[in-house]
Design goal:
The protein is α/β, with parallel strands linked by helices and 209 residues long. 41% of the residues lie in helices and 23% in strands. The strands form 2 sheets. A 5-stranded parallel beta sheet has the order 2-1-3-4-5, sandwiched between helices. Strands 6-7-8 form a 3-stranded parallel beta sheet, with helices on one face. It is globular, with a radius of gyration of 18 Å.
């Protein structure tokens, strides 16, 4: 199933370069030229990763990353900042905006593909290849926004990142014992969603004290 990449850069050339770089990859690419437009587009496009120019109108890349990472509905989305080699890079803002990495422009097609793949391939995987979502300190409620996005994506016929997270045959959830009722309810809902998507999964929960 294809991943989705949203490139936010006011340079049409950069948008085209990224699109061409991924034309032979399992990646759906969409481009916008404004940071606020990019954030507004997320709800409908459901990207797995956003490439954000640090110097674009609307919201710059740092601001866009901060908004994405500050919202429980979008904070699972990877953010890769795009910065010009000819301008100074604000390392302090980078450290505080929550972005996953950054790359300098101009970049080679192979380099951007490798970096994007490295950010996506390492998501939610453990050494056994099972999906591992750790729910601690009351965090089961954080599944609700993800679940809502998963429901919306399923209703629209899309296989969003939420589906890919639970898209393998084995799913392992680690949760606190006191949250058992809530977590088991979420797991039951996920199984029903999987049935709607024609998937069969083994969802196991390990409860910790």
């Amino acid at each position: 199933m294809a991943f989705r990449l949203l490139v936010a850069d006011d340079s049409i050339t950069i948008q085209k370069i990224v699109s061409i770089a991924f034309e032979n990859e399992d990646m759906e690419v969409e481009g916008v030229g404004d940071g606020q437009e990019a954030f507004d587009r997320i709800a409908k496009f459901n990207p797995d990763i956003v490439l954000a120019d640090v110097d674009m109108p609307g919201l710059n890349g740092f601001e866009l990353s901060t908004k994405i990472k500050s919202s429980p509905e979008t904070n699972d989305i990877k953010v890769l900042l795009l910065a010009s080699d000819f301008e100074g890079f604000d390392e302090q803002r980078y450290q505080t905006c929550g972005a996953n990495n950054h790359i300098s422009k101009p970049f080679k097609s192979d380099d951007i593909v490798k970096m994007v793949k490295s950010l996506l391939d390492g998501s939610f995987c453990d050494e056994e290849g099972a999906r591992d979502l750790r729910l601690v300190d009351g965090d089961p409620v954080l599944l609700e926004p993800l679940l809502q996005r998963h429901v919306l994506a399923a209703a629209q016929g899309h296989r969003h990142v939420g589906h890919r997270m639970f898209g393998r045959a084995r799913v392992r959830l680690v949760a606190q014992l006191e949250r058992r009722e809530r977590v088991e309810h979420l797991c039951h809902t996920l199984r029903k969603l999987d049935e709607r998507m024609g998937e069969v999964h083994q969802i196991k929960v390990h409860f910790i004290v």
